[in-house]
Protein 1
Amino acid sequence: MINLPKKSIRDVDVAGKRVLVRVDFNVPLDIERNVVDDTRIRGALPTIQYLLDQGARPVLMSHLGRPKGQVVESLRMAPVGKRLAELIDRPVLTLKECVGPRVKEAIESNPDKVILLENLRFYPGERENLADFSRQLAELADIYVNDAFGTSHRAHASTVGVTAYIPSVMGLLMEKELETLGTLIEEPERPFVVVLGGNKVSDKLGVIDSFLEIADTILTGGGMCFTLIKSMGLEIGHSVIEEDQISQVANAMKKARRKSVRVMVPLDFVVADRFDKNANFKVVPTEAIPPDWLGLDIGPATVERYCAVLNEAKTIFWNGPMGVFEWPAFENGTKSIAECIADASATTVVGGGDSDAALRQFGLEDRMDFVSTGGGAAMRLLEGKKLPAVEALADR
Ligand code: ADP
Ligand code: MG
């Protein structure tokens, strides 16, 4: 694992201190406002538990949904606080505000409770990163901890603004994300195989460029690979294509040859006669996609070939489904590749919201070494870009 330049909670003394923790509790709620999926809450537990074990007093804060700078009753944090209380053996006090005298008073008079502030995005100052709101947040605590990797590509009051006022360090989840993803682009164990799929190649060119510096093999699938195939001069029928990206993709392929990175495209596809869940479908070789059909999944020969490569890998990173896995007729490629990755002896890392959803659909999420909690932030980091909320933290 690489060494990170930033301080973590383990580098500072938190005993007896009030610690303001930015977490990502942006969880899905059902119509009765119950938490449907508590993965993100669980993700923050190591940091919360660490702070409690050290005798610190955690004050947690997060956004929830998109209330656009005003109070939206259905987006209050209360149900999240309730779920959190079921997961830790400490009472949780969920407040109805984020800043001000009543919040300060509640923190002072409840030293034995975990405090959860109201939805940060009820305040316009949060997304606008206003100094006044940032300062008011900072006044609530002695130390700031950022454990919300998924929002670290955004410069908001609770991710960047607040760091101007109190010592600021990363939480354990943030640390794990940065270490794991940073290791991928800096010192992966080889062979390093990257599996890239998903919808648009334009979304992926940044990470492709970055992985061309360090990966040994890139296995492509999903909608994005058709622009690659087209750039090789093959016909792709009605499959998704971004015509305006063809020259960019061709450049990437040139770079791949220069860097001796093997970029593989599927050998066969499951093609459909229309973009529909109930479309007619059949398997065809890549050179024989019928003009009126479109590729919605990789085929069995591709799965076999790709799995052979994955079996040899020491490090695997996967982002982007291999097909339209949301529809049963086209889920097989994604499912089979996910199974190969799960069975591989390599260190396995997965990033991307839909890839994560696919893993859950197949019940394979626990069989990966690491599933990143940050879609956009993870991609930015892998592109080699700086994350403003990480840059703002104290250097070691
Ligand atoms: P992630 O969120 O994991 O980064 P993306 O958002 O890039 O993944 O892509 C996911 C979407 O790509 C899925 O909704 C899936 O249906 C779609 N997709 C995969 N293969 C194809 C294809 N051949 N044609 C059209 N869409 C596809
Ligand atoms: Mg997505």
Protein 2
Amino acid sequence: MRHLLSPLDLSIDELDNLLDLATDIEHNPDKYSEACKGKKLATLFYEPSTRTRLSFESAMLNLGGNVLGFSSADSSSAAKGESVSDTIRIISCYADICAMRHPKEGAPLVAASKSSIPVINAGDGGHQHPTQTLTDLMTIRSLKGRLSNLTIGLCGDLKFGRTVHSLINALVRYEGIKFVLISPNELRLPDYIRVDVLEKNNIEYIEAEHLEDALENLDILYMTRVQKERFFNEEEYIRLKDSYILNAEKMALAPKDMLVLHPLPRVNEISVEVDNDERAVYFKQVQYGVYVRMALILTLLNITIE
Ligand code: CP
């Protein structure tokens, strides 16, 4: 039995196979429409979500399976004090696979250690968000045609942004990857990623405070929101929340083939006027999220379709 707690739980070959499967699903959805008949996915969401929870549910329904779960800690027995370890033992009796989002880093790992069904980390605190990474990789591979030899600008809250941490972990395994880390000083990438992942793997990176200065050399610009829910001090959040706003004027400084990704939700960091720019692919990215989650469910349940 396998879990997905970090993007590194998949080897490069497994990742490539999963993205190939997701692409086949994109082009041949009918082939997979009964692949999970009789199977159940549980979504255990202790934190708010729109995309991750609903795309998992959509993925399982597209595969002919069923879904159950809860969308907030308050509506589960966590509100009465039940532990994650006990909850997953219960859910293992009800479902074949589960996706868990939790505000505490490592909660899905704890769940996996007690689970008799595959556990998928759907975001744990400021730590990792591996299925967003699968979504991001499929978006880049589908629209750029490659996952190597790319210069990627990561902009916004690099301290708390778990999607950024997971994406870096995944991309450093490809050839010719360079990063431009664009953030206010207070929201710089933590050392456990900058030193232990980038520097340890000899990945070229620079840090910048101004988005305008970074744009002209980018293949991908990955925007992120400032993660209000991770701040202890509201004044600090208010001071930093609008550090970067991508607008048409800034897009004019960027290469004609640069893609703009965002894990969403967006707050102010991308002006709506950018939505009509053909380089803005964050809504296409959402659709890819369904295909990769379908591929992931099939992979973890060991279901193959000829
Ligand atoms: N990208 C993402 O995780 O969105 P949700 O918080 O809506 O799931």
